[in-house]
Amino acid sequence: MNKRQARLFAITSTLLASVAFIGLTLDSHRQFGKLTNADKITPAVTRGKDVWHNNNCINCHTLFGEGAYYAPDLTKITKLRGEAYLTAYMRDPSKFYDETRHRRLMPKQNLSDGDIADLYAFLDWVSNVDNQGWPPRPILVTGSTFPGTDQSTATAAATPPAARPVSGAEDPVALGERVFRSATPACAACHSIAPGVNMAGPSLAGLAGRTQTLLASGSYRGQAKDLAGYIRESITEPSAHLVPGAMFSANGVSFMPTTYGKSMSPQEVEQLAAYLSSLK
Questions:
Q1: What domains can you pick out in the chain, each with its CATH number?
Q2: Measured between alpha carbons, how far is 221 from 242 in angstroms, rounded to an integer?
């Protein structure tokens, strides 16, 4: 290739790349309204964005993978944690984690109830933005620094559900494990199966043994008579019996979503119960 050909090649390549870039940019702008649910930007969402910025949340947290990377990415946080949980958490994070033992450094911002409601509205709008799968996975707060939990256990607990394959196409336990990871929101987003690793919900390690002890203790307040019944009740009526601990419930109501009874089929509930019953 002589100098003239090289020059023409460079100019042509630059022009083609520029045309492609402009075309992709215009196409992106054409879709922004739909992808971001712009019609759902209410005054509460706008006020919540101001609360987010005024309190410098981005100095620790990230949205769409952008931010300080010091604390969890909150892009899909309302899909992983319900409004009741996030509202209580924003009121006083210290009720959820012992900062001395667990190294949780989330400060109490002294937000008003109105600011909390607006901030939740903003985060919920963010959660519904079609972010094309970015970031690739949410950064979840796990119990990685809980006493008695080593780093390998904590890493396993934080591994995204899709990373661990499940075998056994007809095995109820295997099918239940798949439900555990794929339900909406995924059970694995709030519950760990590693001992001592409490997340938004208590660890499910040893659930079978603990449940038998609970049912025989006289402190159980639900209607179940056996392990399977207790698990089904916990899935469909999470407030029937509350696990002690301020981080799991407030004012007699569990933070666990009440939608699983409708979003999951009876068969899926049974499969999930079979899997959880296997956690000896």
A1: 31-127 (1.10.760.10), 151-277 (1.10.760.10)
A2: 8
